[in-house]
Amino acid sequence: MPNVPTIAEQGVPGYSDYLWLGLLAPAGTPKDVLAKLSDTLHYALNTKELQDRMRDDGAEPMIMSPDEYNEFLKRDVAH
C-alpha cells in the first residue's frame, strides 16, 4: 500500500510491534518443577521440526532460562 504512510511517517519514531508467547507457572511453583518445565520446553524448541514450523509461521524462537524470561517480562512490561 504505497500511499499509506508508515507509523514513523505519522509521527511515532522507533515504533515496533511484536507478539511473544511464553509458558508461565503460578507463583511459588517449586524450582525443580520450573527446571523440568524449562528443560522440556527447550528440548521441544530445539527440534528442527518445531523450529521450521515456527519460522514458516513467521516466528523467531527465543530460548530463555526461567530467570532470563522473568527479566524479559519485567523489561517488556516497563516498556
TrEMBL record:
Family per record: Belongs to the UPF0065 (bug) family.
UniProt-recorded name of the protein: Tripartite tricarboxylate transporter substrate binding protein
Coiled-coil residue spans: none
Pfam family, any one: TctC
Signal sequence, start to end: none
